[in-house]
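Field guide to reading this record: the first block holds the primary sequence, the second block holds the structure written as discrete tokens, and the final block holds curator observations. Each block starts with its own label. This record concerns N-acetylneuraminate synthase, catalogued under organism Candidatus Giovannonibacteria bacterium GW2011_GWA2_44_26.

BLOCK 1 — SEQUENCE
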Amino acid sequence: MKDIIIQGKKVNYGLTPFIIAEGGVNHNSDLDLAIKLIDAAAEAGADAIKFQTWRAEQLATKAGKMADYQKRNIGKEESQFDMLKKLELKEKWYPQLIKRAKEKNIILLSTPHGGFEAIDFMERYNFPAFKIASGDITNLPFLEYAAKFKKPMLISTGMSNLEEVKEAIETVKNAGNDQILIFHCTTDYPLALENVNLRAIDTFKKELGVLIGYSDHTLGREVPIMAAALGACMIEKHFTLDRTMKGPDHVASMEPRDFKKMVEALKRVPIIMGSGAKKALKPELQYMNVARKSIVAARDIKKGEKFNKENLAIKRPGTGLSPKYFNQVLGKTAKTDIHKNALLPARESWRFIKRAKRV
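BLOCK 2 — STRUCTURE
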């Protein structure tokens, strides 16, 4: 699969997963808190910190209602528009956020909400990729417009079916952009384990022909690690300084200390998964002769005596004739005396091995 490059970092299968700390709206429309999130994400080892870019007027009508999880997590109900207005990341803050991310050597990403204007705004600041939210998976004009900038398209798929995902991919490719990564995710915050459906990663890998990642909304770090083991090459996880803060996403997010532990575990996944080739590995070689077995004499065997199940045995060490030749040895004649528990002599062994190879 072709690499996706995000600000100099390669994303592909077999590499350490690219890890996004999803700051989302957990800045609570507070510049200082947004900067602290950047600092904490960098300290935790994330490759990128991601926020969301919108103006409420471009994103929702005043008639729109809050999602159930938003009402549940905030503890009250108001119009979606009013909630979004309170959580805007102010456009005038972006230069400071970009500067801080550069200082901390972490990539700054954002999800453009609110139509074409949000994409244009992000393009003015030269964001290295577009992260597309699940709610825009069927917003084909939006996908097409973003794709034309020829930057990586990181597309979440919550609430969608396979045909909708394929249609989104086709739209991006028809716009001349093949830098596509699809996130498997389920839209709920926090997400119950029975609704994770990680096997969808396998389905995506078989059906889509693009890189696959996983955007996580569960509590804890076990599911992202499992997703990486299934091959997800990009992991996104909601990130907060304090899960008890007020806001719709804090409660379903991970705090810095646990996020750092997750990052450390994710970096070990490709090491543990290995190459996939089944062969004796270097540390095993020292044990082969000790643990494997050879054909030996079960008692003293005289020259000219035929080998049988009574005068042969299979024992350690594994430095002699392999037990796989046992049935071929039976009925053959010993060419020399062999003492009890001795390995079959080299001359006997090579004779059977050569005959086996000819067969």
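BLOCK 3 — OBSERVATIONS
The chain has two domains: 4-273, 282-358.
The mean pLDDT is 92.
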